[in-house]
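Hi support team,

I'm opening this ticket because the web form for multi-chain structure prediction keeps timing out on my end. I have pasted the exact lines I submitted so you can reproduce it. The total is 260 residues across three entries, so I didn't expect it to be a heavy job. Is there a limit I'm missing, or should I split the entries? Thanks in advance, R.K.
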Amino acid sequence: MPELPEVAYQKIYIDSTSLHKKIVDVQLGADKIFQSPKKDFKEVLLGNEVVGSHQIGKYLLLKLEQNDYLVIHFGMTGKMDYFNHDEIHKHAQLTLSFEDGSKLSFICPRKFGKLFLTGSLEDFRKQQKLGPHATEVSEEQFLELFEKKKGSVKTALMDQSFIAGLGNLYVDEMLFHSGIHPKSKAENLSKKEISKMYRDMMDVLDTVTRCKTEGTKIPDTYLQPHRIKGEVCPNGKGKVEMIKVGGRSTYFCPECQKEK
DNA sequence: AGCTATGTTGGGCG
DNA sequence: TCGCCCAACATAGC
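Hello R.K., no limit was hit. The queue was backed up. Here is the completed structure from your submission:
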């Protein structure tokens, strides 16, 4: 559940189920998830309530009524589960029980997720070295960021200290729409290409976020449904290839995306 | 059985 | 110091 659009969905999910409910019990899972002593989580959360939420990139910060934020990073497989029954999910790493008998769990099978406590949004942003939230970047800012960026464009876009929120899937997606090869060097891109990338980034994030929240399918004109080696690309021009960039599986169309 | 997976971090190398 | 590559983490699904 991890890139900006999925986290945006988790934000709505929490906002619509779990706000302003007094936490009467707290259950904690695997040690490695917790970035402060586990007893601190228990102390802070018990008797408290979530009153709002804020997203920075792939992080979701839940504002608690009494001080502090509970911060969630979903790793590769994290998601929230709000429920009304007794059995707790096998992979629940944090379960809040509310006064009304309902519960909210952070489910994280691969345990790549993380939970933090922090007193301030800005401190947290600095500690994690997070760049600006992708959908809040202006075109001028985007162009400016690329002026001093080197290395492959895909690695640049995945760098959370550069821009926060993009990951493997949607970087491939936006580069496909922009017709830019993922191994192209950031320093070789023209202003025009960077502007095109900016618009495609915004389009992709907006469209995918709407698909996630409305429960609709990703458009067939997108690369994602064709993210299979040898599949014909959505433009009907080439066959999808898979290479490694920055250690991640990277799907692209060699006809639509020429390296520079 | 073996390969793949929406993420992050740390080490080694040139 | 940078850019790049790889391995590690832990589990599920094809």
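A quick check on our side: The mean pLDDT of chain A is 96. Let us know if the file doesn't open in your viewer.
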